[in-house]
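DATA SHEET
Item: assembly model
Revision: 1
Owner: S.N.
Input lines:
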Amino acid sequence: MQIKILKPGLLSTIQDLGRTQFLADAVPVSGAMDVLSARLANLVLGNTENAAVIEFTYHGAEFLAETDLLIALSGEGSILYTEDQELPADRPIFIPSGTRLFLKKNDGSFSYLAVAGGWKVPEVLGSKSTYLQGGFGGFEGRRLREKDVLKNTDSLSAESNAILKSLKGSASVSFPPWKAAKNDFLPLERKTIRVIPGREFTWFTADTLLDLLSKTFTVSPRCNRMAYELEGPPIIRLNTQELLSTVVTSGTIQATGDGKLMMLMADSQVTGGYPRILQVIAVDLPLCAQLKPRDEIYFEILGRKQAEKLYIEQELNIRQLAATIRTKY
Amino acid sequence: MQDKSNSAGLFEIYALSEKAITLNFGNVIDEALLKHVTDFKHTLSQHPFPGLIAVVPTYASLSIFYEPVTVYKSTLPGINSYDKVSAYLQSLAGKNHTSLTQQSSIINIPACYGNNWGPDLDYVAGINNLSTEEVIKQHSAAEYKVYMIGFIPGFAYLGGMPETIAAPRKPSPRRYVPAGSIGIAGNQTGIYPLDSPGGWQVIAQTPLKMFDAGRANPSLLKAGDIVKFQPVSFSEFRDIVENPGYLNAY
């Protein structure tokens, strides 16, 4: 299976679920910003969840099916169209060779295009993810450009082959009547981001902590794969001691020197020296990834036990979904 | 809030996220603390637990990343994955440390000082009332300890620089600092492993690749290593770049 990029869109890169083996060398995790969508796009095709996907930022990208394709799109950055019709997300789609595909506007930031077998790129330091600042991983260590040609790996799972066989009969675009019910994995209230207190939570004034848990925060235009800046009431420190550089991770919210909040994302530095005021719970990170400049959010505080329980429940549900797809085919 | 000191009082434990725990050994830059961190990292590497993903040392802390479902399903004692990992780490701390007695070898870093390779050498000399030759002499005479790798891939924070050549950061960072640049910020010196923006005063450049994603060990330096800078001329610098075999001499 093969596609040619006709328009790359704002920022399109190859990602998987990240590079975790070289954190001690300060190599960022990278990987999909919205890991839930990346995983679901793979699972509905019968892929392993860590197979390489294309991460598209917003809409505007276009590509050509240079062969027949079995693909899936998941995520809220865009909606997939052919010249004739809108295509559904979160399910496998058969695309005949020669079809042009377009990514049109949706409500969020990122979407993920998976292909049966996964996109074929070499593994660098144990991952297929692109790390742009380091210039390695993914497709030649860079963002996708016009005329790039991407192929899948030829190692399709038995499920992928069965899904392909079930859809390939028709000469036109086709997809099954089922889809992964992604909303089952996400909270109903999308504006509330659940957090646990960060290690330096108590370094701030009582007023700041009250504001933090009651006022609105707005995503600033300064957001990228490393971090999203949040604007809101001033963040004032009680304790002004210097923090010795220590480990931070995706979801860590740092309070910077000028009283702003920085929510660290997939390409986050491994270490940082700003106080860590909050930590977004793992199951809400995909929601955060889909935020856009000017979106408003609230924080709701949980205990770490609750956060872990939500995480483990979600992981078991995702495994259940993968098992269901396996028994279907 | 969630702190527990272990029985030996060696560290505090806290949850960094659902997938990581941090052991905090202290809040200062200190060789004794660094030794606790590296010793504990060594002990853990010899006694890993199911679900362990990565162990990340900093100046005075060790963060342990793990896969919560694997930990949760393991037979480690505890009611959730945080408790299981936390109890396991405390039990390790109670054991006799197999201290890392192995002598760190000195890693020599060739450095071409001044001119285009060290545009801030004159500034560093000026604010310390030294000649540039004296700055080079002091910077290359000292032995440095790698305290931690952080900031960007392979960036080593080096301790042990003489205070007589200290210099403040640039008021605003340069947009482009080439890979290999050797800089000073306050009492610290460090080497930029990748082209990147940066605010350190750049006094020299090394032709060595401090970070290479194509190597099995991508970072040339790791926490605990000892580093010395060896002044080289421009022609030696060029020889090293053009003839990587020459590197074996270092």
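QC remark: Chain B touches chain A through 49 residues (CB under 8 Å).
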